[in-house]
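Fig. S4 source data, part A: sequence.
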Amino acid sequence: MIVLSDEFYREILSHPIPTDLEAAKVLSSSPAAVDLFMWLSYRCFTARGRERVPLFGDFGLVSQLGSCDYARPRKFRERLEGWLDLVRAMWPECPASMDANGTGLWVGRANAVLTAQANNVRSTAEVRQLRNLDQFEFKRGCGDRPVTQEAS
């Protein structure tokens, strides 16, 4: 059970951010993908146009997501591309994309709530296929490090 303070509860009710909770449920086996999805839901909803968010630094995406310190920025970028693929499987119109030199993420104004027609097209089986869950088991923890399962 999560207990919210009265002040925080009032803030949530006064300033709701539209998001697709079904998408969050499907992505729940990949905590980093859920974090990115929820962050993008907020960031795209509040964007005033096309905006660039740096990946690194005090105000970078790594800091905003609370991710572990990545020894190599290239590794974080690789993981981010994978998380973006998962997010796009649930939210095809997601306006997020890496910048040309891989140091930032472009976001644009959008809502992460899909229309009923788009929801009908999307299925958990399609997402599982995209994530190759038959080949990988996601550990809960920093970075969703995939571990290859042994064949039984």
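Fig. S4 source data, part B ends here. The chain has one domain: 20-133.
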